[in-house]
Design brief:
With 400 residues, the chain is an alpha/beta fold. The protein is 22% helix and 20% strand.
Length: 400
């Protein structure tokens, strides 16, 4: 842990055994649970944020279930009883779910599926595990891993969390569908404009069977991409020889003269160690406490730099259901009211306000709607450079 801090890290991830934490499993052990508790306490004493990740692959004694099961829920009931209340402990639902990024695969990921597709054990779905975690009173950040062994988020059905405290995890090993830079944005990066995305595991190591010869070139490009887009990254692993470190003195591995093969011990240690210290998070100066629940993000391409006005076609819910207010957040700016007032219940209307005037530079921007207490219906938006333009209704031009 001291070495991790010296490398510039601020977070440590513990992969914990699904079987070892399940009270109904023969591998369950109170001594193991005590070891996890002590490890988290030690990490927190060093000032490190902790991610607990349920692991069912071979090193944890598991059978590599494709999706979470009832055992996963029992594990989280065990862990949340110990760590709820410490917001610097995050819960990673299930390491590397195996579904393909297809509608059928994502349905199983979210809602569960039959035993024959999950090592003979019914899959319960990430939504149900999230609800089980929240039922314990947990307000901690929960991380849901991408499909296809943590590689793909395209098509993911977003989880519903009343607290708006869900992030999405990805393992962008540079192989298969994430091998080259053009694969990263459509594979996982696109989601960052709506929800937090974090790389909870990554490395580039010469001895792995899926090694690719171009990693000495593409690995630095990946880290540049992640930093540029505010996607955090945990590298795997500071306690595995020939991955990040070459020996017990924590001498970092290198990608110099990289060659794939079991006889080589080359890796991304030097790369990670050189990049970590400057990998500071961009913390918003305007924290509002608003939830991500129901947030909507819209990307717009602005043709020229000038002042624009935003109009939103909205409808307040039934009488007494919600305030009808909402905020807009443009790129990294602080949230401001999206419109002045919304009084009519059950009727569509075009709304704007003092804060809906904004100066935008030419290029792509993200407009994010959030914080509508009780919900509000959003049909469409108009972004116009004509300050006198007032939209009428769908299919009509603006009226002065």
């Amino acid at each position: 842990m001291q070495e991790a801090l010296a490398w510039g890290a601020n977070t440590i991830r513990f992969q914990v055994s699904q079987r070892g934490l399940d009270p109904t499993d023969p591998l369950y052990s109170l001594a193991y649970l005590d070891r996890i508790t002590a490890g988290v306490a030690l990490a927190r004493a060093h000032g490190l944020v902790v991610i607990l990740s349920i692991q069912d692959q071979g090193p944890s004694g598991g059978d590599s279930h494709a999706q979470p099961s009832e055992a996963t829920i029992r594990d989280w009931q065990t862990l949340t009883a110990l760590f709820n209340g410490d917001q610097n402990v995050m819960y990673e639902i299930f390491n590397e779910p195996q579904n393909r990024p297809t509608p059928d695969g994502w349905a199983v990921w979210r809602d569960g599926g039959p035993p024959e597709r999950n090592q003979g054990t019914p899959a319960v779905g990430h939504q149900r595990v999230l609800e089980a975690i929240r039922a314990t009173g947990a307000t901690n950040v929960v991380i849901a891993d991408a499909g296809q062994f943590g590689q793909r988020l395209d098509g993911v059905p977003l989880l519903h969390d009343p607290l708006g405290q869900v992030a999405y995890g990805v393992h962008p090993y540079l192989t298969h569908t994430l091998r080259f830079p053009q694969d990263w944005e459509p594979g996982f990066g696109f989601l960052r404009t709506q929800y937090p995305v974090i790389v909870t595991e990554w490395s580039a190591v010469s001895f792995v069977r899926f090694c690719k010869p171009e990693w000495a070139t593409t690995a630095p490009l990946l880290l540049d991409y992640l930093r540029r887009n505010d996607i955090g990254m945990l590298a795997w692993s500071l306690d595995v020889l020939d991955s990040l470190i070459a020996d017990g003195q924590f001498r970092p591995t290198s990608l110099a003269h990289f060659r794939c093969g079991e006889g080589h011990s080359q890796g991304a240690g030097e790369l990670v160690k050189s990049r970590m210290p400057a990998w500071a998070p961009h913390v918003s100066p305007c924290e509002t406490g608003l939830s991500d629940e129901g947030a909507v993000a819209v990307s717009v391409d602005v043709p020229s730099t000038r002042q624009y006005r935003l109009w939103s076609r909205v409808m307040k819910g039934k009488a007494g259901k919600g305030s009808g207010s909402a905020y807009i957040k443009v790129d990294d700016a602080c949230p401001v009211p999206a419109w002045d007032d919304l009084n009519a219940d059950g009727r569509w209307s075009w709304e704007s306000g003092r804060s809906a005037f904004m100066t935008l530079e030419a290029g792509r921007h993200t407009i994010r709607f959030l914080g509508a207490s009780g919900g509000v219906n959003l049909d469409r938006i108009v972004l116009t450079a004509d300050e006198d333009c007032v939209p009428a209704h769908p299919g009509h031009d603006c009226e002065n």
